[in-house]
Amino acid sequence: MAEDTAYDNVTSVEARRAAEALIVDVDGFEGPLDLLLTLSRTQKVDLRRVSVLQLSEQYLAFIETARDLRIELAADYLVMAAWLAFLKSRLLLPPDPAEEGPSGEELAAHLAFQLERLQAMREMAARLMGRDQKGRDFFVRGVPETMARLRRVTYSATLLDLMQAYARIRTRDEFRPFVMDRDRILTLEQALDRMRPLIGFAGDWTDLSSYLPDGWTDDPGLRRSATAATFAASLQLAKEGALELRQSELYAPIQLRRRPRDD
Amino acid sequence: MTDAANPERPLFDAPPMAEQERMVEAILFASADPVGVAELNARMPHGADAAEALVHLRRRYAGRGVEVVRVGDAWAFRTAPDLGFLMQKETVETRKLSRAAIETLAIVAYHQPVTRAEIEEIRGVSVSRGTVDQLLELEWIKFGRRRMTPGRPVTYVVTEEFLDHFGLENARDLPGLKELRAAGLLESRPQMGPMAAGEAEPDDDDAVPDTDQGEMFE
Amino acid sequence: MTDAANPERPLFDAPPMAEQERMVEAILFASADPVGVAELNARMPHGADAAEALVHLRRRYAGRGVEVVRVGDAWAFRTAPDLGFLMQKETVETRKLSRAAIETLAIVAYHQPVTRAEIEEIRGVSVSRGTVDQLLELEWIKFGRRRMTPGRPVTYVVTEEFLDHFGLENARDLPGLKELRAAGLLESRPQMGPMAAGEAEPDDDDAVPDTDQGEMFE
After folding, report:
1. From the CB of residue C22, how many other CB atoms can be counted at a distance below 10 Å?
2. Cβ contact (<8 Å) for A139 and C90?
3. How far apart are CA C144 and CA C159, in angstroms?
4. DSSP B36-105
5. Distance CA A207, CA B129 (A)
6. A121, A124, A130, A132: CA torsion to nearest 10
């Protein structure tokens, strides 16, 4: 602790005791203004008539004592000390007409005002806390009845909301690039459905392209889809053991035929 | 202090009855639970007669907005029964229909009769039970005939109440997508493949049942 | 509202004043928190005049064990302060406020709306966050409007709960307020002219539109 080192350097018991008192005091004050207010009470006059010069000297003496006792003071106490030293010089010296800013008297008056205002607020705080208080001096209803709140909710929607919602859903479809239009796609299922009854007639090797449904051969897009689906379907049927596939060379037409019965 | 010498008189005089009545009044008011006569006497100054003060207090409050009532062995203030209606407050709150609800409603309106599975397919997300229930409760949709497909799913159709609310003569009056677009309700279309853009249109015409809705899914 | 002078009679007559008084009595009795005149009127039947009923009710309860008190623009029943000694059981143990908190509260009450910098300037020390938080938590102070100065600092004002807690009708009733103002001790806030004192409570003046009503009871 910082205070401990301060104690160690103080030799006499009396000085130590004084130091202790001072520490307690400094701790007990809520800042320099509070300290000043306390010091001003020693003047035993109305705060409006307090001698700021005398107060400054009291404060500076206090700070000096604290320093002698090597008590660590918070920075704001030292700032106030510096300011009061300045104020004191202003008050003692005759005013310099070339000097800018408020006069020593004005500064002193403002300080006196601040002290008076702080004092007034303290008195008001005390008066406030001295008033009758709820839950201590007067009381509220012990069994407040909870008011039943019947909340009726009505929902609103306009025709415009409705149409916008529908428009939103329908246009959202256009944003789904991976969902392709069904009517331009021959699905594997469709191809299988188509091929299953047909392969019964294919006793001999037949070109895969001849299995494409009518109307799917002219448009390149349609033919591509139909070819892919039919090929996939034929692979599926081959796997099931229903037909055989062959291709003479790379890129040559794929041929298929019904798998001969084992009998 | 007072006549301590007098052996008949208690050490301290009980407060006047009017004062005792005030005390009972304050205690009953502030207490969370009904208070019995014994407790009243215990809390009041020595010599007070809570039972008698209660008689006065009850008389004073007879016919007032609050009354002193007996609850078992204890006493309490209660609101006069005829004023109970003041203790409830009805607030009417108007809320916007949720996005899910309005979309579901729109689909029912444009595609009716429509099953829940179909609604989900069109919206691309599942439809919560709460959403459908809310629309049913608002009486904007109702159950239609069951679909004659496996599982015989129930269908939804819009109601008279719906037409009324939206100022429509019948659901066929709903504008189609082309009209919506012309009215500026559709934002400019995204630039997709050349095919996608061109094909949205025929799909729309399927979807908008301005010819004969009923047959669409049947 | 429904003055007889009005040739056009309302569709439904308001209940008789004695009945309105009962209603206000019941509503105020039922609530632990003060109830505003507007809410009273809203809860009472159409055409009722809660403000007038309150005048009667207040008179009826003058000097009783419970009293009708005014809190800002609202009203409540409270036990008479002289009977507090009967209520040890109901007494709520309040957290002890620090000196800093009490002084800060007083400064907000007397200087409102006031910024934190101004509180610090008056106290001569910085105000810890905890102090302000404690007062906010007690709902004795709240944020007011921002000051139209650089940095737009937030201001603090006292609440209705503060008035209720300390048994004040409104912030103008603070003890010693007039004397402080006369002594100029509420002034000297930055960039404030001689109007400063008058501006101490613009919130009240805005928020309490029924100054007439206030005078009614004075």
Report:
1. 22
2. yes
3. 10
4. EHHHHHHHSPTT--HHHHHHHHHHHHTTSSEEEEEETTEEEEEE-GGGGGGGEEEEEEEEEPPHHHHHHH
5. 53
6. -130
Tokens of B201: 């249109």
- ipTM of the shown complex: 0.60
Q: Strands (DSSP E) along B87-213, which ranges?
A: 88-96, 114-115, 141-146, 154-158
| C30-65: pLDDT as tens digits | 998 999 999 999 889 988 999 999 999 999 999 999
**CB B190 to CB A174 under 8 A?**
yes
Residue scoring higher pLDDT (C163 or A90):
C163
Q: How far is CA C179 from CA A124, A132, C197, in A?
A: 11, 21, 12
Asked if C189 and C196 touch (Cβ cutoff 8 Å), the reply is yes
pLDDT higher for C100 or B172? C100
* Stated length of chain A: 263
Comparing CA positions, the residue from A179, A199, A187 lying closest to residue A230 is A187
Cβ atoms of B94 and A154 closer than 8 Å = yes
Q: Report the residue of chain C nearest B80, measured CA to CA.
A: C26
The two three-digit tokens of residue C30, written as one number? 């039922």
Cβ A195 vs Cβ A230: under 8 Å: yes
Distance from CA of A178 to the nearest CA of B (A): 11
How buried is B80 (Cβ within 10 angstroms: 0-12 exposed, 13-18 middle, 19+ buried)?
Answer: buried
Say how far apart CA B206 and CA A26 lie, in whole Å: 88
Q: Is C183 helix (H, G, I), strand (E, B) or coil?
A: coil
Contacts with C114 from chain A: Cβ below 8 Å? none
- Long-range contacts, stretch A81-87, CB < 8 angstroms, 24+ apart: A84/A56, A84/A59, A84/A60, A85/A56, A85/A60, A87/A52, A87/A56, A87/A111
Task: Name the percent of chain C in helix, strand, coil, to the closest 5.
Answer: 50, 10, 40
Give the rounded distance of the alpha carbon of B33 from its chain centre: 30
Give the H/E segment covering residue C145: strand C141-146
Residue A256 DSSP SS3: strand
The DSSP output letter for B5 is T
Lowest mean pLDDT among A142-146, B81-85, B121-125: A142-146
Question: Which residue is it, tokens 């009962």?
Answer: C22
Q: How far is CA B191 from CA B3, B196, B200, in A?
A: 106, 9, 12
Inter-chain touch C124–A118, beta carbons under 8 Å: yes
For residue A206, the one-letter residue type is T
Three-class DSSP category at B209: coil
**Cα distance between residue B180 and residue B186, in whole Å:** 6
- What is the pTM for the complete model shown? 0.58
CB A167 to CB B185 under 8 A?
yes
Alpha helices (runs of H) in A30-133, residue ranges in sequence order? 32-41, 52-68, 75-92, 104-129
